[in-house]
TrEMBL record:
One of its GO terms (biological process) is proteolysis. It holds the Pfam family Peptidase_S51. Belongs to the peptidase S51 family. This is Peptidase. It comes from uncultured bacterium (gcode 4). InterPro entries: Class_I_gatase-like, Peptidase_S51. Signal peptide: none annotated. Gene3D superfamilies: 3.40.50.880. One of its GO terms (molecular function) is serine-type peptidase activity. Keywords: Hydrolase, Protease, Serine protease.
Length: 205
């Protein structure tokens, strides 16, 4: 069990969690752990609202498929009842998408962080970025921008991926080498976390 001051368990994913030989089985099983029952809240705020139901159903089906012996209940997060939904949940999953949209929507929900205690909190891609102190923006030039700082980490998801440069391996290598230097120079004692697509880790402060 991983503990911090809120005794939460954090699972951080690098994005495209099915892009591994086991199709994401280890990740989706780690989310549930050894529970026999679980209430799972899936937050799709990083996506456009018309995609929330689709994102919810995708994660719900994958979690169910890889945890067949567990009794699971699911809810799709909505902004009006988010804090009540957090109180109900054992597990909160922040899906990928736009980190800026996710952060902006969460900033419009009062005191939601105070409700996250004794939970499993999962972030994938944009979800990890939101949890971080700083994260790498994958524009043409790498830079760091602020997350919401729930965890004292500097993070890069989709690490060493070539999609930013349309598969150009040389341009991608140069970009990620610059990311490495940037993260080292600006970490200021925070943990540096680099997650390739499909990778995940458990984090404790």
């Amino acid at each position: 069990m991983i503990n911090n001051k809120h005794t939460n368990t954090y699972i951080l994913g690098g994005g495209y969690m099915k892009n591994v030989p086991d199709k994401g089985a280890a990740f989706y099983q780690a989310i549930i752990g050894n529970r026999t029952t679980a209430n799972v809240l899936i937050c799709c705020f990083a996506m456009s609202p018309d995609k929330w139901q689709e994102g919810f159903e995708t994660d719900r089906d994958l979690i169910t498929m890889f945890n067949g012996d567990t009794t699971l209940s699911f809810k799709c997060a909505d902004m009006d009842s988010f804090t009540d939904q957090i109180d109900w949940a054992d597990i909160i999953i922040f899906r990928g998408g736009s980190s800026q949209e996710l952060i902006a929507r969460l900033n419009n929900i009062q005191d939601w962080r105070e409700h996250i205690s004794h939970k499993t909190v999962v972030g994938a891609s944009a979800g990890v970025y939101m949890l971080s102190s700083y994260y790498v923006v994958t524009d043409s030039m790498p830079r760091l921008t602020e997350g919401l700082g729930l965890l004292p980490i500097v993070v890069a998801a989709h690490y060493r991926s070539t999609f930013i440069h349309d598969g150009d391996i040389n341009k991608s290598r140069i970009f990620w080498d610059e990311v490495d230097e940037l993260m080292e120079s600006q970490s200021e004692g925070r943990d540096i976390i680099k997650l390739r697509e499909g990778e995940f880790l458990l984090y404790s402060e």
